[in-house]
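Priority: medium. Attachment 1 of 2:
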């Protein structure tokens, strides 16, 4: 019995034991609640193949999907003053920045990249929503300015991809000053006769939507993206009226003339490439 108990039984149990399944193989769609296998999701550019819901993606994935063959060059942004107001809420602003820099591997909420889209050169300034909700502070303002200057110097289009909750409260009035500053940066591109294209992703809100995000020569949005200034609940409580269903979604804005087109993620590279060939020869 000892041989059966101590040797045979453990061998049988080992053969029958279920292998541990990693918990990151499946993602539940936030819209239709279908479970999506990670490989299928990646192959479909993180778009639900059941309902077409566009799942939020990292800024690195965004750039990889947009540029030809996923090839691009990152552009450095000059450092700005850290924590100019010595801000502290539940923790110091400097500590928050360290935390998000470590978490994302990025210095702030915007990455500038240069490369080819549909065979046409373009400078892209893309927001990282995972970095403090893509909030706009002085570093973001500086990044948009650097991107606009590079576009003018390279004689190519500037494409900005916002994904933001708005201004960064930890920088107070200095964050609000980035609204006119980014508008001036965009104006430099337009005065040079170069295309300025905005690709509005989920979400595009607050001071970002109230400044450079809505000034594109062509305004594109991903399907289902939330685009607006204040949140729907805040607006309803202010005006004391029931708002139309989905009034801040990309499709509603398209129907009411606020944006020019809604383009699925899979078609962005080709559609923007065609646009650039028309706008910048």
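Attachment 2 of 2:
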């Amino acid at each position: 019995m000892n041989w059966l108990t101590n040797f045979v039984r453990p061998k049988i149990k080992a053969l029958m034991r279920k292998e541990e399944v990693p918990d990151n193989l499946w993602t539940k769609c936030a819209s239709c609640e279908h479970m999506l296998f990670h490989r299928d999701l990646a192959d479909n550019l993180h778009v639900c193949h059941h309902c077409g819901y566009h799942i939020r993606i990292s800024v690195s994935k965004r750039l990889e999907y947009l540029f030809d063959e996923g090839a691009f060059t990152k552009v450095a942004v000059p450092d700005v003053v850290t924590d100019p107001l010595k801000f502290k809420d539940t923790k110091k602003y400097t500590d928050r920045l360290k935390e998000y820099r470590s978490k994302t591997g990025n210095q702030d909420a915007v990455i500038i990249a240069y490369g080819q889209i549909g065979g046409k050169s373009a400078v892209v300034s893309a927001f990282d929503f995972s970095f403090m909700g893509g909030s706009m502070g002085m570093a973001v303002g500086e990044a948009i300015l650097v991107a606009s200057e590079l576009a003018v110097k390279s004689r190519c289009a500037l494409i900005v991809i916002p994904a933001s909750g708005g201004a960064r409260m930890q920088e107070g009035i200095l964050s609000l000053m980035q609204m006119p500053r980014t508008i001036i940066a965009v104006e430099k591109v337009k005065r040079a006769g170069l295309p300025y294209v905005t690709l509005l992703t989920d979400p595009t809100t607050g001071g970002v939507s109230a400044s450079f995000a809505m000034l594109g020569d062509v305004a594109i949005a991903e399907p289902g993206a939330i685009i607006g200034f204040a949140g729907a609940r805040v607006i309803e409580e202010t005006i004391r009226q029931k708002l139309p269903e989905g009034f801040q979604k990309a499709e509603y804005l398209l129907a009411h003339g606020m944006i020019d087109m809604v383009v699925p993620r899979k078609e962005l590279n080709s559609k923007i490439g065609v646009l650039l060939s028309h706008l910048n020869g």
